[in-house]
Amino acid sequence: MKPWLFLLAFALPGLSAAASLQPLNADAVDVLLQPPARGERFIALWSLDCAYCEANMQTLARLQQAHPERIELVTVATDSIAQRDAISARLDAAGMEQWPARAYADTTPDRINYLIDPQWGGEMPRTLVIRADGSRRGLSGALTPEQLAKLR
Amino acid sequence: MAHPWSLPRMLTVVALALLPLTLPARDMTPSAAPALGASAAFDTLGRLYVVDTADGHVRLRRSDDEGTTFTVPVNVNTTAEPIYAEGENRPKIALGPHDELYVSWSQPRAKPWTGFVRFARSLDGGDHFSAPLTVHRDRREITHRFDAMAVDGHGRVVIAWIDKRDLEAANAANKPYEGAATYYSWTDDGIHFVPERKLMDQSCECCRIALARTAQGGVAAFFRGIWDDNRRDHAFAELRTDGQTGRATRATFSDWRIAGCPHQGPGLAIGADGVRHAVWYEATHGPTLWYGQLDPGHTPRHKLALAFAGAAHADVATDGPNVWLAWNQIDAAGYALVVRTSTDGGVHFSAPRTLARSHGDVGSPQWLLHQHRAYVAWNTATGFRLLKLDGAPR
């Protein structure tokens, strides 16, 4: 077994279930926004109070599953990670437990919104695409397949 | 078989996964900030009342010195219950003509996105409150929330809210329905609310409703509707209490399309001359806060783009020729409370001026008027602040 695979064996369980939801604070935003080595990283921003968000996450999940070699998907709940149980339960219910999941862990959530995407006013859902070339694109609302095609 | 993921890509993923574990312990502490949803109002003597929430109670405090010191909070609801108090949700306080205290809030139910609109009043300056009542007759465990409250010129308490009963009915009948409906009710005596009336079908399900007293003494609403294909523009309507049905008319025309939750409701203030001063948010070409004077059915007059990225949750007030605007301006450093003023009825506005800053989280700003003076109520993580516009911050 290669050493990095060994490392992954420990790291990936942290990505594999909503139960291991990871915190996202201001200091961690830069890393989240780093361009992927290739393809695109989709960041699905959602909140417990958004009735449109689960469908949007599921749309992105299907896209990621269709292109696993090119697309990463990370879900980010803007609710406080203090609501871990509710966030995890919602992710599980939506069938989103297998994708890396983050939740805000910061006392200034609106500022985290701004750091993630200044062109985002907090409307939900928000999808942010970061491409390997460093370019970014954000879209608000539940995405249609046509919008998704344009984003890629 | 080669793994489809490259090593650098794998390591990036690992770094993303491990990153939180490498941060200092203080940053690992989950956000446990208190809910910042709060509202304030002056009584006829200039005493300031503030409601916020703690531990399942709406709490009332009074300040007799413009927010410098406060009385010990008293609970409005003696029995604790869940209360929405974040984002566009906050408990409301409004005063009657004889300084009756009226308080409303939305109570989350067990299922997501559900709620009941609740109400209590005090006739003795907050020493005693009536037992909270549920405003609407419909008691299904569905959305009745985002309450907004105003007192009309006859002393009636008018409450509007977002209600999903028609969405539920449409779903059951397999018929399309976008968003939620807007309903309202009122009470003449502060005890009995009339059966609720529908103001509009297919309105936005997650933005606060703005209410303001009209020049004729009625109450009008400005709120985000849904026009064809998820265009989330705003409607204006009078909340008739005379048996007639108020008509909701489209009043903004940005054509912002979003199948989602804007989480940014508008603001409304109506002058004695009947001019409807409004502020609203849309993001057709990026986040934009607007000011305009509503002319329902037509594009607002004197439209002005106030602020862009990072600007949120504006409020507006007017008195005579003065119009005051305030909003939260967010940047990487934190939050600023920004104001613009007009002394010619909203035709021209001063340059934006930062009235206060906060490094911690903040609630939405709210204008208060007393004896023709303008104040901004701003709840922050370090405490409630009342800022007098032309004086030193208090």
Helix-strand blueprint:
The complex is a heterodimer of chains A (152) and B (394).
Chain A: H1 3-11, E1 22-24, H2 29-32, E2 40-46, H3 53-66, E3 71-80, H4 84-93, E4 101-104, H5 109-116, E5 126-131, E6 136-140, H6 145-151
Parallel strand pairs in A: 1-4, 2-3, 3-4
Antiparallel strand pairs in A: 2-5, 5-6
Chain B: H1 7-18, H2 25-28, E1 39-42, E2 48-54, E3 57-63, E4 74-75, E5 92-95, E6 101-108, E7 115-122, E8 133-134, E9 144-151, E10 157-163, H3 165-172, E11 180-187, E12 197-203, E13 210-213, E14 219-224, E15 234-238, E16 249-250, E17 267-270, E18 276-282, E19 288-295, E20 298-307, E21 311-319, E22 322-331, E23 334-342, E24 353-358, E25 366-370, E26 373-380, E27 383-388
Antiparallel strand pairs in B: 1-2, 2-3, 3-4, 5-6, 6-7, 7-8, 9-10, 10-11, 11-12, 13-14, 14-15, 15-16, 17-18, 18-19, 19-20, 21-22, 22-23, 23-24, 25-26, 26-27
Short synopsis of the structure:
The complex is a heterodimer of chains A (152) and B (394). Chain A has 6 helices and 6 strands; from the N terminus they run αβαβαβαβαββα. Chain A has helices spanning 3-11, 29-32, 53-66, 84-93, 109-116, 145-151; strands at residues 22-24, 40-46, 71-80, 101-104, 126-131, 136-140.
Write a structural description:
The complex is a heterodimer of chains A (152) and B (394). Chain A has 152 residues and is an alpha/beta fold. Chain A has one domain (17-151): Glutaredoxin, CATH 3.40.30.10. Helices cover 34% and strands 23% of the residues of chain A. Chain A contains 6 helices and 6 strands. The longest helix of chain A is centred in the middle third of the chain and has 14 residues, at 53-66. Residues 1-17 of chain A have low confidence and may be disordered. Chain B is mostly beta strands and 394 residues long. Chain B has a single domain (35-388), classed as Neuraminidase (6 Propeller), CATH 2.120.10.10. Chain B is built from 3 helices and 27 strands. In chain B, the strands form 7 sheets. Chain B has a 4-stranded antiparallel beta sheet, with no helix packed on it. In chain B, strands 5-6-7-8 form a 4-stranded antiparallel beta sheet, with no helix packed on it. The interface between A and B is large, with 59 and 58 residues. Chain A: Keywords: Signal.
